[in-house]
Amino acid sequence: MKFFEIFNLKPDFDIDVSLLSQKYRDLQRAFHPDQYASGSESEKLLALKKATEINDAYTTLKSPVSRAEYILKENGLDISHETTTIKDPSFLMQQMEYREHLEEISDMTEPYDAIIEFEDTLSAEQVELQEKISRDLRNAHHQEAASALRKLKFIVKLQAELERLEDQSGQL
Amino acid sequence: MAYSDKVIDHYENPRNVGSFDKNDPSVATGMVGAPACGDVMKLQLKVSDTGVIEDAKFKTYGCGSAIASSSLVTEWVKGKSLDEASSIKNTDIAQELALPPVKIHCSILAEDAIKAAIEDYKAKRK
């Protein structure tokens, strides 16, 4: 898988993100346009192309959602632009409750403790889903991995909303 | 992104927001979610003994287009039979609300919510 090869990493969902970031910085420096300032036009163009590719690969592999999407896509299952809806009632009921809880938090005058507690709940769900995705991908259970990944997207969305709330409440 | 006037109207004055008791035998509940944006939609229909939708309520967590799509659907299904309601297409919703291509999935979500509610009703009646 090309994006993993760029960083000389084994193609796997479980990667060391700090190692990835370190390799990214090294490569970014090596292919920085400034290094090719005195080079020919074709050398400059090639370096630019390489730098863009490095950026794309890094952005894709950095986040668990896009990393899993990439691995699935390389295995012939592209879910990144799908418009499928999910209908798992118990999961959706739980999502409804989470959204309601988010509303409650946004109405609180002192939301700090509730935010921290909710963050913990969501991270626990995130870890659980990522472990499932990792297992399913290793066992080439791509459909199962895709289904867990769809759920992970809801959790990541909630985390982003919660972070926004946290930023808004000035007392933190 | 610019929302159409109809989307803004439904977003600012959503019709039929709320819930029915999901254990009521005449209530059909459809829950659907869109992984692409993390939107969650609940559509509930109150169905008469003759299979006519007497009332509808929704609760949607999502963007303006998702809220507008579900709000519109609650207006459209009232007075319709379940069969008539199941023939509502996402393209009708998208057209009425003038949804841009990137928001088409919101109308798909609303169509699927109707279907899920009808399935729930049929399962309850068995």
The share of residues in helices of chain B is 40-55%
- The overall strand count of chain B is 3
Oligomer: heterodimer
CATH C-level of chain B: Alpha Beta
Structural class of chain A: mainly alpha
What is the approximate shape of chain A? globular
Classified by CATH, the class of the largest domain in chain A is Mainly Alpha
CATH fold topology of the largest domain in chain A? Monooxygenase
Largest sheet data of chain B: 3 strands, antiparallel
Task: Give the CA-CA distance, first to last residue of chain A.
Answer: 42 Å
What share of the residues of chain B does DSSP label as strand, in percent?
15-25%
Function (chain A): Co-chaperone involved in the maturation of iron-sulfur cluster-containing proteins. Seems to help targeting proteins to be folded toward HscA.
Subunit structure (chain A): Interacts with HscA and stimulates its ATPase activity.
Keywords (chain A): Chaperone
InterPro entries (chain A): DnaJ_domain (IPR001623), HscB (IPR004640), HscB_C_sf (IPR036386), HscB_oligo_C (IPR009073), J_dom_sf (IPR036869)
Q: Can you describe what's shown?
A:
The complex is a heterodimer of chains A (172) and B (126). By secondary structure, chain A is mainly α. Chain A has two domains: 2-62, Helix Hairpins (Orthogonal Bundle); 89-171, HscB, C-terminal domain (Monooxygenase), CATH 1.20.1280. Chain A has seven helices and no strands. By secondary structure, chain B is an alpha+beta fold. Helix content of chain B is 45%, strand content 21%. In chain B, a hairpin with a 4-residue loop joins β1 and β2. Chain A: This is Co-chaperone protein HscB homolog. Chain A: Keywords: Chaperone. Chain A: InterPro entries: DnaJ_domain (IPR001623), HscB (IPR004640), HscB_C_sf (IPR036386), HscB_oligo_C (IPR009073), J_dom_sf (IPR036869). Chain A: Residues 2-74 form the J domain.
Characteristic terms for this protein:
heterodimer; A: 172 residues; mainly alpha; Helix Hairpins; Monooxygenase; 7 helices; B: 126 residues; alpha+beta; Sufe protein. Chain: A; three-stranded antiparallel beta sheet; 5 helices; 45% helix; 21% strand; globular; ISCU (chain B)
